[in-house]
Amino acid sequence: MTASAMVAEFDDVAGWTADAVERLGERYAIPAACRGSANPAALAWLAEACELRAGSVLLDVGAGVGGPAAWAAERFGVRPVLLEPMPAACRAAARLFGLPVVSADGARIPLRPGSVDAAWCLGVLDTVRDKAAVLREIHRVLRPGASLGLLVVVARDPDVPAAPEGNSFPTPRRLAELLDGAGFDLVERIERPGDAPLSWTRRVERVAAAVAGRHRADRAHALAVRQSESFVRLFASGQISMELVHATGRPAGRPSEQSRVEDR
Ligand SMILES: C[S@@+](CC[C@H](N)C(=O)[O-])C[C@H]1O[C@@H](n2cnc3c(N)ncnc32)[C@H](O)[C@@H]1O
Question: Which pick of 4, 140, 146, 259 has the fewest CB atoms within 10 Å?
């Protein structure tokens, strides 16, 4: 992931977001640091689907500035471990939430096999070229049978004209194949539930305005705005949409549901 627009969006803007939250106050931190479009309803669905419980280790792959993981720690008492390749985003997450952050790529997770109780990967897969490698790595570090929660931008058709720089969107069918190939059973998938409450949206907008106020003239800011405008256009035209997915890791050696159906 080297596209300059993505570095702008996921690194420069991540650092500026943490600066703005520090100026505005702590209650802005979680909404502003949910940068993969997860809202409280989506996070609650994922947390319940994955049966998060106090004390369990939740690995957040592509954690960005750490909003979703911090939300899960605050509401469900999990012990999050954040994994994120962008240096300024790692520093921003550590500054805002004091959570442990591993600076690494999702295709090479520096954790032992079976060492985490649940994993999230929210708004990340469409930014990753080798989606299968990331899913395989998550499967390796998850406890056998444990849950994976995904928020994924999916495409209606395999080719999306004018996709934002560095993004490639799987179709729902391709996503199911990728999960199966990586050793996951798909439990459930839904459209992202409803809108965020106004008080959440207003905090997100206040932080975005504070960032724009200081950095509007910066090239990285213009690139990030262009990325988000092209997402808005694609969502509005129905070419892409957002899904929440709950899957569980198959223990090694157990055939997939799909192959068991085909064997019958
Ligand atoms: C849209 S942001 C979502 C951030 C966070 N998950 C959230 O919901 O707030 C996508 C994140 O994926 C990260 N990312 C991109 N490629 C990655 C990879 N190969 N491995 C892990 N993370 C990656 C980016 O750096 C960025 O922080």
Answer: 259
